[in-house]
Amino acid sequence: MKDEVVVIGAGGHAKVCVELLQAMGHRIAYCVGSADSSDHCVGVPVLKGDENLKKLRQAGYQRLFVAIGSNAIRVRLASLALEQGYQLVNAISPHASISPTARLGVGIAIMAGAVINAETRIADLAIINTGATIDHDCEIRTGVHIAPQCCLAGNVVVGRMSLLGIGCKVIPEIKIGDEVTVGAGGVVVASLPNRTTAVGVPVRIIKQLPDV
Ligand SMILES: CC(C)(COP(=O)(O)OP(=O)(O)OC[C@H]1O[C@@H](n2cnc3c(N)ncnc32)[C@H](O)[C@@H]1OP(=O)(O)O)[C@@H](O)C(=O)NCCC(=O)NCCS
């Protein structure tokens, strides 16, 4: 088995994740991008097309990180990679502060300056972006993206594949549903149902998609 990590994605988010993985001491073999990706991603060669995942697996690569910003695409590609026998690694900045009692899943990105406090749970494939702070006893579910400079107070739950846009604030005890988007700078003072988009200070719901 080869020890180097394969990264899915070759865009801006992948650039940050590649450098996080390198800061952890990982060597990155390839990024796997789309047909219109650049040839390199911060110096790492890019293979174009998802079919390369199977070839790399056959060539003995096993460790993988999905560096795609879109929550739905990240979760879908991770599930494809797991079916092919890859193992997901985490990309965690040495400049993040993570409580020893926090619990982390796999395939997670935690960027520089992020703070994760006591007994918070971060599920698989979540992104805790630059400078975001997540206080005690929060639950961040699978495939969530907490964008840069968000602040979550204690006991907040964020449902599967939700996005909190850059600079959001969430008061204690709030429950945010699955596939929710909170617009940049939003302040969440009441719980939000599944599949809603909410913006403003405090946030108001501007879109509600039907349940699937
Ligand atoms: C909330 C958001 C997803 C809405 O995008 P959209 O569905 O394309 O909606 P629109 O741009 O058409 O805006 C709809 C209305 O909401 C308003 N609006 C959009 N984003 C807003 C925000 N963050 N705060 C306050 N109002 C906002 C628009 O002004 C518009 O108002 P109007 O109907 O009175 O003209 C987007 O604006 C946003 O904030 N995305 C966050 C992105 C982000 O932080 N990503 C993290 C990257 S690391």
From TrEMBL:
Q: Name one Pfam family in it.
A: PglD_N
- Chain positions of site Increases basicity of active site His: 137
Molecular functions (GO terms): transferase activity
UniProt keyword annotations, A-Z: Transferase
Sites binding substrate sit at: 69
Tell me which SUPFAM superfamilies the record gives. Trimeric LpxA-like enzymes
Q: InterPro entries per the record?
A: AcTrfase_PglD-like, PglD_N, Trans_hexapeptide_repeat, Trimer_LpxA-like_sf
Residues that hold acetyl-CoA according to the record:
145, 166
The residues responsible for catalysis, as annotated, are 136
Annotated ranges, domain PglD N-terminal: 5-78
Regarding protein family, the annotation reads: Belongs to the transferase hexapeptide repeat family.
Q: What is this protein called?
A: Hexapeptide transferase
